[in-house]
Amino acid sequence: MNVLNLDDFSTEEINQILDLAEEFKNGKQVDYKGEKVIANLFFEPSTRTHYSFDMAALKLGCKTQNFDAENSSLKKGETLYDTVKTFEMFGADAVVIRHVENEYYKQLVGKINIPILNAGDGTGNHPSQSLLDLLTIRQEFGKFEGLKVVIVGDVTHSRVAHTNMKIMERLGMTVYTSGPEEYREEGTKFVDLDEIIDKVDVVMLLRVQHERHEHSMIETVEEYHKLHGLNMDRVNKMKENAIIMHPAPFNRNVEIADDVVECSKSRIFKQIQNGVYVRMALIYKALK
Ligand code: NCD
Questions:
Q1: How many CA atoms lie within 13 A of 14 on its CB side?
Q2: Nearest Cα residue to 136 out of 238, 237, 8, 278
Q3: Considering the entire predicted model, what is its pTM?
Q4: Helix (H, G, I), strand (E, B) or coil at 204
């Protein structure tokens, strides 16, 4: 089984993956006894996604190989396909890949004969992140249907926003977007943060994706924080049971105030923990 894009999974399959992740959270044990090797191929920087896939593999008793893009033959002009094929030939049982190109996996499907787990493609998809977001939401509210979410920030350049908007709408949630006008995405329900803040169940913040911008941001950090950042004043207007999420890395005092990061409504570190269980479920299903 490949995990490339959540569009390839039925709603039932998505719920099954979340159930399996919940089982791992509750102590389900699987031990491959070092007989399976997962290769982590990250062509873009990553802390959480990379090392939580690694941790998930280790917890399942797999061994891992961690590709160092900076010191690899990429520097000698080697292609993505040739790099991935190399790890397949080494004997890896699955590959986890993050790459700057949208839908990079299309050039691999049918030619790579081990499961591919997409750890993020450009501004396109980030399926494992969405699944861990969904797990966190389900744990909190016990359902998806009828929940309201606002995704705030650099929506245009965010694969997290793109993946979440689609899957959340499919699961019956209403998704609004907010943030700087220049990151407004066509076809989304774009709203003023201060008008929606007291009406939503989830406030999901995004980092400004400077590395994907052709021109630097118009607003200064202070302006961004004042206009679109989640500070305590805004948190205090949120519904009683509403929660704050962020895929991280977060920039303190830009999209989120320092004292909001670990406030009682924040589930940011819980998301990180859930990421390991979701990735255990994905690796387990991929290896089956
Ligand atoms: C995100 C990513 O890389 O897409 N981070 C993550 O995987 N947790 C978001 C980001 O980089 O801002």
A1: 23
A2: 278
A3: 0.97
A4: strand
Kindly report the protein residue whose alpha carbon is nearest to atom 12 of ligand 1.
Answer: 207
Among residues 167, 206, 163, the alpha carbon closest in space to that of 183 is found at 206
Residues in the chain: 288
- Walking along the chain (288 residues) 10 residues at a time, the average pLDDT comes out as 98 98 98 98 96 98 96 92 98 98 98 98 98 98 98 97 98 97 95 98 94 76 94 98 98 97 98 98 98
Q: Check if the beta carbon of residue 250 is closer than 8 Å to that of residue 258.
A: no
Q: Is residue 40 a contact partner of residue 65, using CB atoms and an 8 Å limit?
A: yes
- Which H helix or E strand runs over 205? strand 202-205
Q: Look at the block and give the residue holding tokens 């991929």.
A: 286
Q: Given this model, what pLDDT does residue 215 score?
A: 74
The helix (run of H) or strand (run of E) holding residue 188 is none
Ligand 1: which of 53, 160, 208, 212 to mutate, judged by most atoms within 8 Å of the beta carbon?
160
Residues with Cβ within 8 Å of residue 19, at least 6 apart in sequence: none
Structure tokens given for 270: 């819980």
The Cα 268–Cα 41 span in angstroms is: 25
CA of 124 to the centre of ligand 1 (A): 12
Two tokens, residue 104:
């990079």
Domains observed in the chain: 6-125+273-287 (3.40.50.1370), 127-268 (3.40.50.1370)
The whole-number pLDDT of residue 220 equals 86
Q: Is 26 exposed, middle or buried (0-12, 13-18, 19+ CB in 10 A)?
A: exposed
